[in-house]
User: Which sequence fits this backbone?
């Protein structure tokens, strides 16, 4: 390598590093600025923070054993009051306590399963989209097959095969959504790989890993984050649905879906037993959808 | 064009074979043996072993799988452990109910979603637009089984207008159809709005306005026609999704469809029935997706031109 080339390379390298850092910061700032202007997204973020606060500190707000699990037959099916703000269920357990403890399961299954699915699906999608060719062909045929089964049926059958329990529920829900993220990542990568800057990097002699992590991923990441945010919402619904069908969390542990299925017998005269867990699911999912919508708008380069 | 259609139809075969393999593998993970399930826990070990032997339960996985496929090609998907009847007999009895539910819900969703989506786009940023957008986001977030429970609570238990469970009369279909369709209507509404907004800004709309065409003609003939493609896709996709989604709604409203059959057989560990039901629902789903793809190719002049060459 000639002296000139080396100098250019060093100069170019350091410059691009500074630029990249600057660009990254300003991009996050830019996105945040746009989100701040987007009222629904802010409302979504606020609701989400409230949920996170209650679920993270659930054990400090209401004791798990005495309030969410222990039966209190003297106070069965009491309507909301100052003592029990969401009322009590058929065993006299505090519904507010069960809702916030139940939120731990729903939110963490939603978040963890999406995170793992993004990671696993992402790696496969990345490799398939970037390398293309035969590998891509094989991956896509497998994905075609997996996408041929409705997601909820995949989750239900895996959950049924593994048996009840939170871990099995988590595994079932994670596996069910991996194909989706393979497809999303792959299509994001495909649009990015065709760009001139990737071609330039390749012509420049950059290694694959460098191109992938420096050029391709950062540009595809935005859309993946948007999809993941929306997906957490769907997975919260799926978690609740599976528990509602009796395949997830087992009694007496609280979970939003199983609280609904336990409460349906009593809803005629005690509506609160199904109202609050249902509202919790709806608002958690709503918050994530609103935030996802806002993120999508904020990341849209067409927006000024 | 015919070549394209034929190729797509042919591609369905390996996909369905793959689906069979995946479903069969998942079911193979389930603990329990057919002997115990058919005869019950109290049966003698000898009898249980005999049944297991007879059904080839102890064979290696691949042997079992290929036997399954070989029989399936001949139309024999096995017999239910519970009823001892061929599994498809039960599926075919129940499928019309599920199909009615899915078709009804899809149509309802389209009837609600498309017009409101158009109005929302035409009157962008109006109060109506804001209200529908917020309602649509909310409906897309509400779990179907909760929506179903709330409808039962108000319309069946409190107001006594509709039956809470069963589909003996047409009235029984009303709540399940609404439960299924509202979240779908929300997604159709949002997509229609986006698609219309994009089209409304095009030059040919301005031209139509300039030449003095009536507003309604502009919207329906010039704009909607061009925005229709993505709308058709989402309606079709949702129809497929609804076939799977009926599982929950059927469970809530006690509807004897393929969905409840699947859930019941999963609970009873009735493997042949579960496997066949899931394969059947998936095959229907794949067929609908394929039909949508082909329809798309026919409707879109750009695609049609490409395949005509």
Assistant:
């Amino acid at each position: 390598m000639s002296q000139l080339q080396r100098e250019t390379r060093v100069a170019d390298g350091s410059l691009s590093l500074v630029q990249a850092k600057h660009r990254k910061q300003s991009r996050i700032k830019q996105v945040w600025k746009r989100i701040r202007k987007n009222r629904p997204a802010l409302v979504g973020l606020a609701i989400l923070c409230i949920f996170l606060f209650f679920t993270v500190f659930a054990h400090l707000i209401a004791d798990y054993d005495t309030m969410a699990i222990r039966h209190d037959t003297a106070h069965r099916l009491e309507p909301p009051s100052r003592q029990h703000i969401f009322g009590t269920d058929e065993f006299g357990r505090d519904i507010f306590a069960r809702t916030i403890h139940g939120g731990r399961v729903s939110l963490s299954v939603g978040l963890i399963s999406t995170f793992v699915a993004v990671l696993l699906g992402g790696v496969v999608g990345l490799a398939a989209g970037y390398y293309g060719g035969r590998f891509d062909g094989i991956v896509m045929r497998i994905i075609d097959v997996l996408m041929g089964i409705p997601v909820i049926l995949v989750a239900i059958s895996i959950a049924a095969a593994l048996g009840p329990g939170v871990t099995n529920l988590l595994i079932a829900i994670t596996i069910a959504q991996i194909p989706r993220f393979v497809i999303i990542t792959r299509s994001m990568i495909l649009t990015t790989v065709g760009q001139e800057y990737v071609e330039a990097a390749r012509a420049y002699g950059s290694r694959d890993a460098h191109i992938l992590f420096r050029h391709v991923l950062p540009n595809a990441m935005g859309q993946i984050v948007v999809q993941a945010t929306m997906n957490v919402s769907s997975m919260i619904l799926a978690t609740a649905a599976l528990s509602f069908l009796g395949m997830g969390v087992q009694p007496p542990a609280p979970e939003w879906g199983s609280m609904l299925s336990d409460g349906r017998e009593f809803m005629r005269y005690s509506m609160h037993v199904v109202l609050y867990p249902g509202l919790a699911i709806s608002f958690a999912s709503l918050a994530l959808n609103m935030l996802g919508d806002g993120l999508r708008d904020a990341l849209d380069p067409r927006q000024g | 064009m015919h070549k394209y259609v034929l190729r797509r139809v042919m591609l369905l075969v390996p996909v369905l074979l793959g689906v069979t393999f995946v479903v069969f593998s998942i079911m193979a993970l389930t603990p329990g043996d057919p002997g115990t399930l058919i005869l019950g826990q109290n049966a003698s070990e000898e009898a249980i072993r005999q049944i297991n032997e007879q059904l080839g339960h102890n064979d290696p996985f691949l042997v079992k799988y290929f036997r399954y496929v070989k029989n399936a090609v001949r139309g024999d998907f096995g017999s239910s452990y519970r009823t001892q009847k061929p599994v498809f007999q039960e599926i075919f009895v129940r499928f019309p109910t599920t199909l009615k539910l899915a078709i009804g819900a899809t149509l309802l969703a389209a009837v609600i979603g498309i017009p409101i989506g158009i109005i929302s786009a035409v009157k962008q940023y109006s109060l109506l637009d804001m209200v529908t957008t917020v309602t649509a986001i909310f409906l897309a977030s509400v779990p179907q089984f909760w929506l179903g429970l709330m409808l039962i609570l108000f319309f069946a238990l409190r107001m006594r207008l509709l039956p809470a469970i069963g589909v003996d009369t047409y009235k029984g279909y009303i709540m399940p159809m609404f439960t299924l369709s509202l979240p779908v209507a929300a997604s159709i509404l949002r997509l229609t709005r986006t698609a219309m907004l994009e089209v409304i800004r095009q030059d040919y709309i301005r031209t139509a306005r300039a030449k003095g065409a009536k507003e309604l003609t502009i919207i329906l003939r010039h704009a909607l026609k061009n925005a229709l493609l993505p709308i058709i896709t989402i309606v079709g996709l949702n129809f497929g999704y609804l076939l799977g989604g009926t599982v929950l709604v059927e469970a809530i409203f006690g509807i004897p469809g393929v969905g409840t059959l699947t859930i019941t057989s999963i609970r009873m560990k009735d493997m042949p029935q579960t496997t066949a039901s899931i394969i059947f629902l998936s095959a229907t789903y794949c067929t609908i997706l394929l039909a949508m793809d082909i329809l798309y190719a026919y409707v879109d002049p750009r695609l049609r031109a490409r395949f005509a060459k």
